[in-house]
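Structural prep section.
Before we set up the soaks we want a predicted structure of the protein with adenosine-5'-triphosphate in place, mainly to decide which crystallisation condition to try first. Input record follows.
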Amino acid sequence: MTGDGGTPVLEVEDVGLAFAGVTAIDGVSFDVRPAELFAVIGPNGAGKTSVFNVLSGVYRPQRGRVRFLGEDILSRRPHEIAAMGLARTFQNVELFHNLTVLDNLMLGRHHHFRYGALAALAWLGRARRQELAARAAVEDIIDFLELAAWRRHPVRLLPYGVQKRVELGRALAMEPRLLLLDEPVAGMNLEETEDTARYVLDIRDELGIPIVLVDHDMGLVMDLADRVLVLDFGRRVALGTPAEVQRDPKVIEAYLGGSS
Ligand SMILES: Nc1ncnc2c1ncn2[C@@H]1O[C@H](COP(=O)(O)OP(=O)(O)OP(=O)(O)O)[C@@H](O)[C@H]1O
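Run finished without errors. Recording the tokens verbatim:
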């Protein structure tokens, strides 16, 4: 069991977010501990993506506080939060599809995505000359995620499951202090799902990186997570170990009565 003690990496306190009268998050609190695999689940529209967008600085909530490594991040822009060590993957693959696996991971070491593809490519030219150390770190990630066979291949030619793994690698290349995974197995077949689950556990256990994973699939989350936050209609329905959450009548009600 990991994530038992220590100062929380992430502290979320009474966060509230609404869009033109629609409540997306309604007074949600939780924390994430060192080397913990923390899952956020809930039926469709429960507020999971909104929580992610608050954590990564895309949405600014009207109420509450979020601290990452002890620092308030609510007033920070997304790229500043990323630079502090909070890396995320997306529900859809977001990579430079014409670049190789290696180049996508090299780009992950820097936070130039906000400038667009041209600036990123210019940076890549400089990186080739200047950053041999970056290259060594990226090669380690390629080994860790078993991507060696594809390292020189353009991402667009890779199977979907491998593309998702490259995206994971790009997030790791940022040397994150916390990793946010948005539906990491969405659209995957069984084999790809099992592979991904194994890599996610390895990231926690071997690299010691805490993870917040969002998904609506109870099965996967219950197998992987140390603790689970269940949301419904933007509210916290339950928070606890998978076993605690699974037998909570409020959770069963949210799933059976929900739209999922
Ligand atoms: N940008 C937005 N503008 C308006 N309403 C939004 C916006 N983002 C989310 N919402 C609303 O907030 C609520 C929570 O949505 P959110 O996408 O966070 O849920 P979710 O749990 O991620 O759902 P899903 O599993 O379907 O992705 C919903 O009612 C949604 O319509």
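Observations: Residues 94-175 form a domain with the Rossmann fold fold (CATH 3.40.50.300).
Flagged for discussion at group meeting.
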